[in-house]
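Q: I'm a student working through a structural biology exercise. My instructor gave each of us a protein and asked us to get a predicted structure, then write a short paragraph describing it. Mine is Putative beta-lactamase HcpC. I'm not confident about reading structure output yet, so if you can add a plain explanation after the tokens, that would really help. Here is the sequence I was given:
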Amino acid sequence: MTTETQETGLAAYLNGDFATALAEWTKLAEEGNAQAFHNLAILYQNGEGVEQSDEKAIEWCEKAAEAGVIKAQTHLGFLLLQDGQPEKAATWFTQSAEEGDVDAQFQLGMMYHMGEGVAQDNEEAADWFEAAALQNHSDAQFNLGVLYAQGQRFHHARHWWQKAAELSNESAQDALAQLDEAGV
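A: Happy to help. First, here is the predicted structure for Putative beta-lactamase HcpC. I'll explain a few features afterward.
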């Protein structure tokens, strides 16, 4: 029943039938289904089939995150950032980043680079950017290149910018052109 209800809810959602998706996922949530918690968070965040509520989106997403749904942990981090809770967001991003979530890894890199919700630390930022870069996250590759360039390590910067450029990252393409112009 659980798989069938989940699939029925997903099919309804994809067809824009948010009322059916809400009904199916609410049944599952009442049974303690963690993925249903996350699905309900998305409905509330987007106001699909329900009145839009960031507060309810956070509540449902937190239930899913606490139950171990990695994408929900990352999603919760973004919701908490939007809600002005960067320290709490960093905690959830760290949890999902350590599980390999590329978006959380990149976001943690940004937070450490900017000192948002965590102490500013470019070495920690570089570690998280590299984790995401190794999963072909082009913005992480670009940012890692920037950190290397700031440290005058242009060979490493070029390496990461080349990888990002191969993924059509325009900022990396521009950075490579600037390196070439400078003869570096």
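A: Here are two points you could use in your paragraph. The chain is about 75% helix and 0% strand. The mean pLDDT is 95. It's a good idea to check both against the output above yourself.
Q: Great, thank you!
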